[in-house]
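lol ok so funny story. i was supposed to be doing the assay writeup but got distracted and ended up predicting the structure for this chain instead. priorities right. anyway since i did it might as well share w the group, maybe its usefull for someone
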Amino acid sequence: MSMKQETRNVKLETDDEKPVAIVTGGGTGIGAACCRSLAHEGFRVGILYRSSEDGAKNVLSEIEDGFLLKADLADLDQIEEMVRHIRETEGRVDVLVNNAGISINSDINSMKVDEFDSQRSILRGIWYLTKRILRLFMIRKNNGRIINISSVVGHTGNGGQIPYTMEKAALDAFTKSLAKELWGRNILVNSVAPGFIDTAMTTSLPSEIHEKILEDIPLGRMGNPDEVADVVAFLANRGSYITGSVIHVNGGLYGG
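and the output, tada:
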């Protein structure tokens, strides 16, 4: 599969000092909200998508300064090509938001091995992309922010989502371990763990499941993507004494 990138307003000679944020899964839902919030905070935003091209283009049209990146995180060659492209055209990455993910839902007896592997391949891609961004950009400058979007179900578990909950729990462990590896550097690593957020994934739930979820949330409603993105923007631009932490955004569903 080929990897394509589209850019808008690339003016390296004038934008050299503007910080750059990359958001994976930036074309829809929480990722799109993060792109808008980071642009509002003054970042030039790279909107990384795999299949949501129309959504990514819509986000690009809504923000002041951004560019599109296309890659499948399950393909390490595509990640490598994309990182080279960022290095050649942008020359910097100040914030990486690892938001992209998939959820393949099935009980343990029904799920096939290749479905399990598809779920886990995204975590491998997150690890590799972070590794390359750190080495090529952040470690050289001794500065940066890495923000991983995990989930409340990585802490509570959820029937029918074993590989997904494993991935999200592993992402929080990755956050804590990487923060320790970067000890002494000005590179902060944190997770934001949303609860049930009003996105395409949750609106497709049967009404009885939707009602049961609401009964368990002290605030009595689902969150919206902007409420998650607000926390991401805080960690990206402020939050200077927070690293190795998991910040829960779930309306009181789980206290951490």
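Strands lie at 5-7, 20-24, 44-49, 66-70, 95-98, 144-149, 187-194, 245-249. Confidence is low (pLDDT under 50) at residues 1-15.
back to the writeup now i swear
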